Amino acid sequence: MAVNSVLVDTAVVVKYKVGVDTKGNDIIKNQRANDLNLLATEETLMDLGDIIWRLH
Description:
- There is one protein chain.
- It contains one helix and two strands.
- By secondary structure, the chain is of the alpha+beta class.
- It has one domain.
- A two-stranded antiparallel sheet has the order 1-2.
- A hairpin with a 5-residue loop joins strand 1 and strand 2 (26-33).
- InterPro entries: DUF1659.
């Protein structure tokens, strides 16, 4: 998978929809991995995001 990034922080955040509230609004949850190695490649960070997604 091709990945483009701009370094603004050393974290990976995965946001995902877990349901809908009574008003029809999406319920969104976040998982965050902080203080990552600045030398990590974009592909490695995407892999980490995929792993976090599978664990939710």
